[in-house]
Amino acid sequence: MYFAIDEKHIPQKVEIFQQILQSEQGEMTEGNHLFVSVSHPDDRFRAPEGKRTITASTHIELSKWGNKDDYDIQKQVLEKKMIVGIKTIIPNIEEAKHQISGAPKALERFTSRPNGGVGGFPQTLDHALFNSISHRSGLQELWLCGDTVFPGAGTIGVSVSGYHVFQSITSHHHKLP
């Protein structure tokens, strides 16, 4: 979800990057785990003076978005659930001047990823530590990096996966002088 909002509706001490956990049971998809980014008050690339932008995302189960009726229902349910989560840090989010909700078909269109699947794997215990997908493919001299291998999505996660590949390649062949 993308928002444009007047500065006056943003709490004074809001962090620009946050994660919101909404599930008491530790569920990490379908709006239970949100990644929220709020533009810095001085950021003129994302918003004019007196305005801020907010981006919120969550992992979803793509299988629940299969047909048009399910798709429309899922989108409405998820929008409402995400708004509830965002309100925990920005109580006046409903005052936003603009709200645009992305969904799998929009992401497929703009990212060319099948079914709109982006962002790697959800951060769950099933995907943590020794259960995550390794940068080692198991095939000689074929290495993997990106948002679908450890440590996962985001600029930092993707960069670290590339660093792991670099380390494996350079230590696999020879130590650098």
Radius of gyration, taken over Cα atoms and rounded to an integer in Å? 19 Å
Query: Pairing-aware structural class of the strands and helices?
Result: alpha+beta
The neighbouring-strand order within the major sheet is: 2-3-4-1-5
Measured distance between first and last alpha carbons: 48 Å
Oligomer: single chain
Continuous helix count:
3
Number of domains: 2
Strand content: 15-25%
Envelope shape:
globular
What does this structure look like?
The chain is of the alpha+beta class and 177 residues long. It folds into two domains: 1-118, no CATH class; 120-177, no CATH class. 27% of the residues lie in helices and 15% in strands. It is built from three helices and five strands; from the N terminus they run E-E-E-E-H-E-H-H. It has a five-stranded antiparallel β-sheet with strand order 2-3-4-1-5, with helices on one face. The longest helix has 20 residues, at 154-173. The protein is globular and about 55 Å long. The model has no long low-confidence stretch (mean pLDDT 86).
